[in-house]
Amino acid sequence: LFSSQPDSLAMFEEGIIQGEAQTFAATLAETPANLKTPTKIAALISSKMPCTVTCITRDKNWIKSQQMEMFLSVNQGSAEPPVLLETHYKGSEDPPIVLVGKGITFDSGGISIKPSAAMADMKADMQGAATVFATIRALALLKIPIHVIGIAPFTENLPSGTATKPGDVFRSMCGKTVEVDNTDAEGRLVLGDALTYAATFHPSQIIDLATLTGAVGVALGSAACA
């Protein structure tokens, strides 16, 4: 590598890490849903984190103990148990920034089922979570002096005899009750409980990332995201 800039090698290595982060997030999004069930994707992400990142996989019993009924309501139709993945990178002693990502590993819409053609890309309804963990991986590899926590509620949203029905009511982790009008609006439910949990870390900021609605394309077009 030849350059007149004395720090060119460091810049090159930083670029590689940033590029790897983008590829990691894209690969997670494009992985088939049967290969990234909540349990599988949590294990995969944890295995890719550097040793400076602590990974905690919260199971269904823990989720129940936190009274995350909104999160659990989305999972009711699936045979795959939900997982809340939590990662900690403590590059400083500052109050943490908490990143919360939507982690629906496949979204059929539930009882309010999507048309078949609209399900083609629903394996990627966890791109918010993919972005969160790719970001934390990059921050740790770059040794950025920042305190960041990543949280993602992972579940499938499927119809079945045990699935949530329109009109059902659930109590959230924060104590508010929520009536489900449309089971294809599941992102708000899983994020609601995850955001309440994020607040327990007394963060300086909470940032959430999610694929919530196709209407954003109508508002902003295909060249931008919100």
TrEMBL record:
Single annotated GO MF: metalloaminopeptidase activity
InterPro entries hit by this protein: Leucine_aapep/pepB, Peptidase_M17_C
Organism of this sequence: Henneguya salminicola (Myxosporean)
PROSITE patterns recorded: CYTOSOL_AP
Protein family per UniProt: Belongs to the peptidase M17 family.
Protein name as annotated: Cytosol aminopeptidase (Trinotate prediction)
Biological process terms in GO annotation: proteolysis
SUPFAM superfamilies: Zn-dependent exopeptidases (SSF53187)
Domain Cytosol aminopeptidase: 182-189
